[in-house]
Specification:
α5 (about 170-180) packs parallel to α8. This protein is globular. Helices cover about 45% and strands about 10% of the residues. The chain has an eight-stranded mixed sheet with strand order 12-11-10-13-14-15-16-17, sandwiched between helices. By secondary structure, the chain is an alpha/beta fold. The protein contains 28 helices and 19 strands. Bound molecules: acetoacetyl-coenzyme A. Acetoacetyl-coenzyme A binds near residues 126 and 148.
């Protein structure tokens, strides 16, 4: 520990240092100082103050020292930098390094004077658990508090389920911990998770000191959170059961089940026993393959969102030995955005941009098509309001950010223009010729193509370095994945801008190479190629879909195709001279999927429940007989092997060709964009854990 002053927004009143040279305390990520009779403990472990072993050791040392200081009347726990503790250090999870977080929290809770956590930024996971070990919690107005462990296949393991239940009740604790979604400070205060929200102008540390002084002046006695069980109303176990069932209905993995058990324990067992059971559940979850897969994805997502080193180095000019590195590529300033094409994709992209605060000019060729697009946008925002996702004024503000036009020149002042027109190279090249003519110098010109050759599009402009692919997934305003397609001449700062744009839009970017279908769609084609053959050999669409769902996919490939419509691929096949006898026969009979009431399944009276269609079975049998294929029973394991094997093989080919930089990027693409079960970590991670490959 050192006696450096606090650096972050948690800064509080200064007074003489109490630790440092001669104090016998080692320098480290935890510092200590006195403010009158209050002790101020600051954690300084950039970037997010994650609690690793060094922080736990530092905290233990400070707490021992504070306990021995007979003058102290209270202690404030705060953090330097941009945030309060954002959780246990995920890189250390699984290593049993003493002291443990529960030990640190027990020591904190046993101090003979009141303590308060001064929270800014985010208090997440182990960070919030640490704060729950304090007598009080005071947060900055913009702070967010959560227990997101379920998202890592875990549950809180340092008393979070127990103490949160005592503070906010079982129902609210189920919502908080079962969903893992953080709460804003106001909502946390209304629930009783925190005691006060600091004023907009107050540093939370100062507000926390004031809170303690007021408390002490009143001579009040406040028990530690762990001793507040008796103050709870008697639990209504029936209501708890109902609420838990609702939560678990949506759950796909074991972690929410463990959360429910831990909260039930908090209600019915003595606190110390409930804590011990929570820890045991946490340890079991930690050792589960699901948690390992989720942690893999956590880091994979963050790696994917950064500019790869080769691009950074190329931009800095340090690829030649001895060359002086130039500056890192800076993202360009993007304020005004344009979208070309107001179809399903274009209007979704316009909404995603408006949702991120951009003023958007949406251009269509005809008034009629434009009005159709704008009406679609209005309907979509109305739906958001009806479903409680947005308030009416919020929806209105966003909708008004989108202005329609039929005049391409209206995009001339845009910093970013995203083309989302018909998927045809000549059409897109025409648009890019026009954009090159009208766009301001330095504007980023992006195409949303999902298959076409980005370099062939960029080549028609005099500024190929400004051209990039931004492959959104439908519906663009909801889906998080964004494939950022790097053309042969795309400038590093354009890629940096695309990553910054994704962050601003709340999307998960992955940089991919400019090859047909990029990464996601190319692998999808490989996965789906064997499907028709499976039907010929005797599988039914329902059997294939069930095998996929059992594997963890939210939906099987045939249900998915019925939902999306079979006609688009059919038209593409006809245009390119390809054939897919089964699917072609369905389309020729007008069976395009849900929208026509028949496809791979039949649907009754506009309902969305897929029912087996004997017509499909007959067609498969006829075709099989014609080809001399004898139908047989196919096990789910074979169905998975014959579809997922090609998926993984294509992923490996993509890596060999450098279309994706890392196997983990492919995992991010498939879990964010295609519904590959996150509990399995993505296709390449899954293949590696199954021993199918050793280089994924
Ligand atoms: N442990 C280790 N590293 C972490 C971390 C953690 N808990 N949280 C973030 N980081 C790292 C990231 O990997 C990233 O590192 P690089 O710069 O090397 O990529 C860096 O901190 C910054 O993170 P972000 O890019 O995510 O920054 P952000 O500003 O977008 O988001 C955040 C900040 C909201 C805190 C986000 O990082 C986050 O959600 N973190 C994880 C929170 C979480 O899940 N906490 C629970 C941990 S499990 C736990 O605590 C169990 C327990 O009880 C014992």
């Amino acid at each position: 520990m050192t006696d450096q002053p606090e650096a972050g927004p948690g800064s509080g009143p200064e007074s003489g240092p109490e630790s440092g040279p001669g104090s016998g305390l080692e320098p480290g990520p935890v510092t200590w100082r006195r403010d009158g009779t209050l002790g101020i403990v600051t954690i300084n472990n950039p970037p997010v103050n994650a609690i690793g072993q060094a922080v736990r050791l530092g905290l233990m040392q400070v707490l021992e020292r504070a306990a021995a200081d007979t003058d102290l009347t209270g202690l404030v726990l705060c953090c330097a930098g941009r945030t309060f503790v954002a959780g246990a250090d995920i890189t250390e999870l699984g290593q049993r390094l003493d002291p443990t977080l529960p030990q640190v929290i027990a020591r904190l809770e046993a101090l003979p004077f009141p303590t308060v956590a001064a929270i800014h930024g985010t208090a997440l996971g182990g960070g919030l658990e640490l704060a729950l070990g304090c007598t009080f919690r005071v947060a900055a107005p913009g702070a967010r508090l959560g227990l997101p462990e379920v998202k890592l296949g875990l549950l809180p393991g340092a008393g979070g389920t127990v103490r949160a239940t005592y503070l906010i009740g079982a129902r609210a604790a189920l919502d908080l911990i079962g969903t893992g979604n953080p709460l804003p400070a106001d909502a946390a205060r209304n629930l009783g998770l925190i005691d006060a929200v600091a004023g907009a102008q107050d540093a939370p540390t100062r507000a926390a000191c004031d809170h303690l002084r007021r408390h002490n002046a009143q001579g009040a006695i406040s028990p530690p959170v762990l001793h507040r069980k008796d103050a709870m109303p008697p639990p209504d176990m029936a209501a708890f059961g109902d609420h838990a069932r609702k939560l678990l209905r949506k759950a796909r993995s074991a972690a929410p089940v463990a959360v429910v058990e831990a909260i039930r324990n908090a209600l019915v067992l003595p606190p110390v026993e409930a804590l011990a059971r929570e820890r045991a559940l946490f340890q079991a979850a930690l050792e589960s393959p699901v948690s390992a897969a989720r942690r893999h994805l956590f880091f994979a997502e963050r790696k994917a969102a950064r500019l790869p080193r080769d691009i950074r180095d190329a931009a800095r000019g340090d690829t030649h030995p001895g060359a002086l590195p130039g500056p890192r590529p800076e993202a360009r300033h993007l304020a005004r955005a344009g979208v070309v094409g107001a179809g399903l994709m274009g209007s979704g992209i316009a909404m995603a941009l408006a949702d991120a605060g951009f003023d958007v000019t949406l251009r269509e060729v005809s008034q009629e098509a434009l009005q159709k697009g704008l009406a679609r946008i209005a309907r979509s925002y109305d739906k958001d309001v009806a479903r409680g996702r947005l308030s009416a004024p919020q929806a209105r503000t966003r909708r008004l950010r989108i202005v329609g036009t039929t005049d391409l020149a209206a995009l001339s002042e845009c910093d970013l223009i995203i083309e989302a027109a018909f998927e045809d190279l000549a059409v897109k090249q025409d648009i890019f010729r026009d954009l090159d003519r009208i766009a301001r110098p330095g504007a980023i010109l992006a195409t949303n193509t999902s298959y076409l050759d980005l370099d062939a599009i960029a080549a028609v402009t005099a500024r190929p370095a400004d051209v990039v692919g931004l492959h959104f997934f439908s519906p663009a305003q909801r889906m998080t994945l964004l494939e950022v397609v790097r053309g042969a001449r795309t400038a590093p700062d354009v890629l940096a801008s695309a990553l910054a744009l994704a962050r601003r839009m709340g999307k998960q970017p992955v940089i991919v190479g400019a090859a047909r279908g990029f990464v996601g769609n190319r692998m999808l084609a490989a996965r789906n190629a064997p499907l028709a053959r499976l039907l010929l050999e005797g599988a039914t669409p329902a059997a294939v879909d069930a095998a996929f769902r059992d594997f963890g996919w939210p939906m099987g490939p045939f249900e998915m195709q019925d939902m999306a419509g079979l006609d688009i691929s059919w038209r593409n096949r006809k245009a390119t001279g390809q054939a897919e006898p089964l699917a072609d026969a369905l389309c020729e009979a007008g069976h395009f999927g849900q929208k026509t009431g028949r496809g791979w399944y039949r649907y009754e009276d506009g309902a969305r429940t897929p029912l087996p269609d004997p017509h499909v079975t007959r067609l498969s049998r006829t075709l099989a007989a014609r080809r001399g294929v004898a139908p047989r029973a196919l096990e789910a394991a074979e169905i998975i092997a014959r579809t997922h094997g090609p998926l993984v093989d294509e992923g490996r080919a993509i890596l060999r060709e450098g279309i994706a930089a890392r196997a983990s990027d492919i995992d991010v693409i498939w879990t964010h964009g295609y519904g590959f079960p996150g509990d399995l970590g993505g296709p390449m991670y899954w293949a590696r854990t199954q021993g199918l490959i050793d280089d994924g």
